[in-house]
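A note from the maintainers: we've had questions about how concatenated examples are separated. There is no special marker in the raw files; a new sequence line simply starts the next protein. For clarity in this README we add a label.
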Amino acid sequence: MSTPLLQDAGVPFDLFISSLTEQLDKAQASMAIKARLGKLPLTFAVKEVSLDLRAFVQILDDDIYLRPAGPGETEASSIKLQLTTITKPMIDENSVDYSTEDPKFSLREALGDQISETEQRQLERIGVRTVQQLNELKEKAGTDVIARLSRMPVNRLQQALLRAAAPRVTRVEPGAGTGPGDTSGRVHLSAPGLRPGRLPRVRAAGESVAVVGAEDGRIVLAPMASQLGCEAEVDFGDGQVARVELSDGRLGQWRPA
């Protein structure tokens, strides 16, 4: 049963479209079964669907709701919808790939309390759904442009960007050594604060951590076994210092130099 809010406001526009296309999917599947089982040499299919609706439109919490007009309600808006077909390659080419970002490094997970649900929706409206996209947009457009397009306060956005740009452990490759001086394989970091041509200084457990690779915003470390799992200090230079635990999936944070 619908909640009182949905009964009064109608249904969300995206839910209406999803329900409509789901019904069309069922109709298409039914026609396909009939043609296959009946071995029909010729049958019919739905190519396009056009709808003229009389409905009231409301915006609640940035979502659009539709409520169909009832008898005698003459002030409703006229809404015309025309649905057409789309193939799987067209869907793959024109829709967002939600599997590209590791769930451990999603926008919500990375930014935590630095961003509210409303602010997250504001970023999603301009196409920013992952930490990587947020950092890329900052490099190309700058903080002021993101703040203006997303309608977020600049100071809130700067806090979010600072958190998003902190290093994070993307992968740990354990080594065979277990002694205090043995290396523990490799620790891969995503490091948006990395500057081209400059290796960061990394320390953990009171000793330096070997940096064996640094390019394209990524760092590869070769810590000793005793340093794995410890909090590391990553000094990018120019006063940029971050801390991150050398464990799989850990997110770092900035601190004053």
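[label: protein 2]
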Amino acid sequence: MSLLEIILIFVLQFEAGIYGEPTFYKIAGHDVILPCATASSSDTTCSSVSWLYSRDLSETFSEVANGKVLQTSPQAARRDLDKRCSLVIYNITAEDAGLYTCRHGTHSDHDSFVHLSVLTISPSPPDADPKRDGNITLECSLLRYSDLPPCEQNSIRWMDETGTVLLGEGVGYKLLGQKNCVSFLSVKRQSGHNRRYTCQFVKENNVEIEADYTPVFTDPSPDQPYIIIGAVVGMVVVLVIIAAVFIKYRKRVKEAKVTEDVQKPIQQPDELESNLTYVTVSHNQQASLEKKVEVEEVTYSAIRLQ
């Protein structure tokens, strides 16, 4: 037997082993318990059990070693073991999808495999304004072990709230098709018409898992115009009050200035006299050339009028 034949037989046996193992279908955000078929019922501490995780054949990560969750794992906070050595995963995310291997002891002879597939629905664009009408695209994805065969065409289907399977194009929707394990549906979001859409993964005519999505339209608040009007009126009232206070303040300033001018201090007599200059005028009158006339002194004074 050639080396190529040995490798081919090994690959076929490996694929038959992992593809024939159970698959758990879950929705993102839920919890799951993955059983370990090779765990011993007498080993209640799970001290000889390890769990391995791989998204594809290229790389494998250790999640649990000797019955203990490895804290080096990025997902350690959402991992746990129960009394049966089953792996418990809380709050499932898309990154949890893949192949899980339970190993008892240090050898891989009795490994058991479990697949975890995660169904997600997300709108595109994800930040679409919920207050505006318009078309959005819903993306339904089945995330799983990437080395599995592709999903069959039409294995992911859409339904409306009445249970009607959506095909082609209809009122408010348009089926954009399926690519591998991802299906796209364009829907129209309208105010007052929050329809519900369901994505299902169907395998051999059996619905393995389904998830609902409702494009939410948020109507503007009916009280919003009144709130705006109230705010404008309130602002006008505040401005009027400020203007009235300012006018009243200026009026008071003017009145105070007039009062100050009227009540200026009146000069006292002593102060007035100190500001006056007295002049003495001598008047000589000569009756004749030979006779002297006495000098008459005249004194002028200032009279203050009350």
